[in-house]
Amino acid sequence: MKKLKVIAAMSGGVDSAVAAARAVDAGYEVVGVHLALSSNPQKYRSGARGCCTIEDSHDARRAADVIGIPFYIWDMAEEFHKGVVENFLSEYQSGRTPNPCLRCNEKIKFEAVLDRAKALGFDGVVTGHYAITKDSPNGKTLHRAADFEKDQSYVLAVLRTDQIEGAIFPLGDTVKTDTRKEAKERGLFVANKPDSHDICFVPSGDNAGWLRERLGSETGDIVDEAGKKLGEHKGAYTYTIGQRRGLALTVPDPTGEPRYVLKIEPKSNTVVVGTHEALAVNTIIATPPTWCGPAPELNKVLRGFAQVRAHGLPLACEYKFDGTNLIANLDEPVFGLATGQALVIYDNDRVVGSGTICETI
Amino acid sequence: MHSAGRSVRKDLESAREEIAKAIDCAPSEVIFTATGTEANNLAIKGLYWKAAKSNRNVIITSTFEHHAVMDPIAWLAEHENAQVISINVDRNGFILMDELAQAIKDHQDKVAFISIMHSNNEVGTIQDVAKIVKIAGDIPVHADCVQSFGKVALSFKDLGLTGATISAHKVGGPLGVAALILKRGLDIEPILHGGGQERDIRSGTFNAPSIVSFAAAAKESVAAIADRDKKVRAIKSELIQTVTKNVSDAWVNGDQTNCLPGITSITFPKTDSEGLLLLLDSEGIACSTGSACSAGVQRPSHVLLAMGLTEDETTSTLRFSVSHSNTVTEIAKLGSVIASVVARSRAASGKK
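Above: the input entities. Below: the structure tokens describing the complete assembly.
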């Protein structure tokens, strides 16, 4: 049989390096590719933990050389800016809290890169994500990683089945400490490189400051649910639903209860605050749905688990697809849920699908 | 000096004489440096600082020099008040002589020096350096000859140059040794200060073993020019025919008469050169794209832009370098894959 040819997306970190090395061991013909996500690499980030600095591209190249595979840099700056950064800004402007890692997987790694790889005659894309794909009679399905702490199926739940078909995750069965150990054994210098946590294109991790620089800092009112002014904010989009700290309210609550951000209204430029109870969400509505395997039967109520944050807990729920929206009714309420985040539905460890949260009740 | 030192000195000076013979200059005109980049920096900054003492601050160069010439000149403009005039090149890569003559006429007493490359590293076009020197009159002319040395016959004396840069690694010698050929009797400002080993113009302990290897490689390359030239040009011509037969809209950049024997730049419209490179490499064919930034992202080549190509066209271009050791069989291998490689790269490039 002809060797399958794959592109290994190499960020310069330990996970993608080990993933590429394992793909070679598994018998694939592997070509390493580092994605340049900024047309001016130092513009977005100057630290050592991101995924788009010059240092990271050198680390990726060094890892490819040690593994013994060809290595190229693909300029994805334009696609990244359009698909991820602009979307990030416009979502905040609309009062939602986006997750750029999901967008990057959806638009860059498993669309722009996968499409380009296929056009060049490759069969798939290897990444260092912690998730598992399994073959089923209806094609490949997406599952949680063996290491629940590192599981990244949440940020991959935006992939359509055709994208999952082209995805290879060699680290799905491995715990992170073993990955580092293996990197060391393989002589990969990145073995001890720290994990990246922040948003790669926001320098210093100061999300609010980065947004303020780009979206301005028009002050507006902070009000209670009845519309009474309690204070002022410096740019509504720098707040997140459920946020308690940094509100600087000038009118204290008569009961002395802490108050939380309930809603962000970009049109009137107001931030609505209220009690913890008012944050309770029982029903989550998300759209448009992406199915990571067979789509559920229309309007059929099914039992499963909802996850609403990258490393959040699975929440027992009933869910259904009504033809437009994916709707989850939680067994227990969840507190402080921002629109713009992804609702991901699991059938035990299998990812059923996802949607962007547009309404919570 | 003790006898061991004398023995090294003897080999070193023999090497200097050998290099001088290879480029037809006096041995005392050979100043060894560590790299071609250093030699270019020394010529450019040294000539500029010398001329600046007599209020000459205009540098004339071309729009498509190597970075090792372009960047020190840009540095002088930014930090040392240099005024830079970049002479345009035509579609074939020849500098516009009328523009050069006009620039000299306009700034006669202000011109510090002229630096124009002997042949271009991306497209291979060879300039008429003798004519440039003639137009320049008394103005010193430096030429980056790194690409030409050992590939075509060069006479420093006959060209009338003030400075020329050559490098060992382009003639099959070791990395880390090069030379600035600088006219006898001319003292320029050094950029490295210390023991003054090379005419008080370049300091630093001689890299004797590399210098000796450089001389041996230079001697062999220059002696082989006549034999290899015809063979290499025949292989290049075979490559061009093979490629254009298989990819009907591909074209060759640069003049095809006054050119280096082995370098050819070919544009494959609507492809992207990174994709071409990747696919050709996986077929065992090594070629190169133009320039990349420090992070390795491909950038439109300033050489091809200067010659009038669009940005999209510059990033659809590959440089092939053939040598006397390439064979017709290897060219046939390229011919058997190039059409499908180009088709795939086109599908992946998204260029319209």
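Note for the figure: Residues 226 and 272 of chain A are 9 Å apart (CA to CA).
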